[in-house]
Design goal:
two-stranded antiparallel sheet; 11 strands
Amino acid sequence: MLACILQVAAAPHSAPPAMRRADVSVVTQMSSIQLADLAPYTQFARAAYCSPTIVTGWQCGQACEAVPGFEVSLTGGDDNNIQYYYVGYWPTENTVVVAHEGTDPTQLMSDLTDANVLMESLDPTLFPGVDSSVEVHSGFADEHALTASIILKEVKSLISQYNANSVTLVGHSLGGALAELDCVFMALNLPSGIAIKGVTYGTPRVGNPAWAALFDSLTSDFQRINNEKDIVPIVPGRFMGFSHVQGEVHIVSDGDAVQCPGDDDATDALCTIKSVPDIFVGDILDHLGPYQGIYIGTIYCT
């Protein structure tokens, strides 16, 4: 199945220097308009928890109603071996949207705090030209590979059909990790003129510092949103060799959020790495929200 992925001729993507950081250099308060603009992406992530039988036709209740006019073209997953996912076209933004379901946060925490968690180099068939020093969580890589080719094929079809100029990747929890992988995957396998945008929620660390540096070099339009004392974004631990990518938005409280600098090294007390220094001072319930009034998870597919 992976053989149908279009190979892009390009020079090898060596890992940029691991100290490369995002352009945001200081903690920046987000405006009410900026926060409101995130709502459609939050609803896309919420809808990914709904069964494909109701996402097809965009009939998934409040999440679907919040983004009218969205046209679903592909759904899949079984909520077990393969997380739910969907692909569609969003006319308002002339973009193709790919969304992945997350997973039960307590089970995810068990998996991500396992001292035996492994990293692996990216599959060169899916991520052509990437240096072998770039490594990601093996479980995330395996899950991503299950749907990568079929999703890419659909994305290309929609771009051609609608003359879309961008692809938007969204997800929460494990789905956020898959969306993060998708950002680089799409950047490497789509024409350079297609803009890549990512918005994720409660995303765990996905790879090593070389992954973060590569990601930052390929994906500039990215926000990973952490809610208050959520502990999922601080695992797997940095002591295990993991690092976040750029783009942290930390919801401090309802209506109050900041953009944090760097990949995983912000020093301000308002940023997650300082406000949630370990899992013992965090709150797993914050993983579900509210993200500016919107909760995300299976029980919120209403």
